[in-house]
Fold:
Amino acid sequence: MDWSRDWLSARATILLPTLVAVLSFATGVANITAPVGGFLTRYIPESFQLAVGFTGALTGFTLLVGVTGLRRRLRVAWYLMVALLPVAAVQGVVQTSRLSVLSLPLVVLSLVSLPTLLVNRHRFDRDLDLSTAQLAAGAALLGAQVYGTVGTWALREEFNGVSTLTDAFYYTLVTASTVGYGDVTPATDRATLFGMTVVVLGTASFAIALGTLLGPAIEKRLSEALGNMTDAQLDLLENHVVVLGYGDLTEPILDELAGATDFVVVTPDPDKAARLQQRDIAVLTDDPSDEAPLERAGIHEARAVVAATNDDAQDALAILTARALNPELNIVAAATDRENVEKLRRAGADTVISPAVIGGHLLVQSALGREGMESVADHLLDVEDESDL
Structure:
């Protein structure tokens, strides 16, 4: 096994920052309440160490958001993680409470994750593609917060408990989110009317923002119900096998692939895709002879392609598309009809096998009294195991 390849794979590039995010959040929360102590206590003010606890938890949460972007291979998420991982390492050093059992792994994992991200920079090449609704939601949320903060600060003389810009932002945030602790209250009619506008605009902006977040989640559930992999799942595929289409010949192939390597099935039949999804088989509901679904299925990162349905013509079209997208790919096909073997080879298949011809030959030889045919079949089934020895 190539351990260096596994260590620098897409999964490791995402797993390591995820562990850093969880540790950063846990360490930050723990250091908020834990007694301050350790070898840095004499050099760092206690108030600063406590503040790092709060910012550490915030850093961990932001890292989790960045991990979500990494799963989508967003370049902006890569930049965010490169900037935050050193911050997490520094926070781990500063957080010198008795819970150093968390801060030490945080420092180590942060330093290990950074070079892994740098080496895999080429993997994260997608631009952030925000919909109009998402842009509108972000603008509305930001605008409502700015409006409330600036207005509250301007009217600070007419509010009880507002003396700084932080107080103004705090009042806007708790009012717009409908938390309303009641520690900051308007003291005049004008301030009361302004506070009402903050409630209306703030809650509306929060509702729009929640809608844009829930929409993709609902879409994900629908995709899974229809037998589709999500983009995040597809982005993690590498060195896998792409199975073009699904038919009677495909089922034993899936049994062999299961547990041996990662694979994804591309089939246009939603019913078959849903059944495969129920069996926890990675599937994409689309036409395997089109370029777009094959690119989504990671045809450029795949190790091989298998085309084995009951329709040789459809297999040929799918093979032509796969070969055009990745000329170096190893393509294996199963021909239903013997006369189509050469046609599939001309379409671009490196290896073409006719299960019917092989099975028929073994059956006839056995019927004619030739012994050992069953052992030949068993030998064919054991070829893979023998090649691993």
